[in-house]
Sequence to fold (64 residues):
Amino acid sequence: MRITIDEDKCCGAGQCVLVAPKVFDQRDEDGVVILLDAEPPLGQHDAAREAAGVCPAAAIEIHA
Fold:
């Protein structure tokens, strides 16, 4: 699994961080998503997929 993010789409809702805190964080100044692990271990795949699914701005893309 590989993850990419589109910072321009991110609205700073923070749902990704709540669902997958080992994969995503947020910048302090504006709340935009920070990708902590673009290729997370197998144990984080479900959380990363869920985070992409709950992102209100569709800023997270999962590549198989």
User: Anything to note?
Assistant: The chain has a mean pLDDT of 97. The helical segments are 15-19, 45-54. The radius of gyration is 10 Å. The first strand starts at residue 2 and ends at 5.
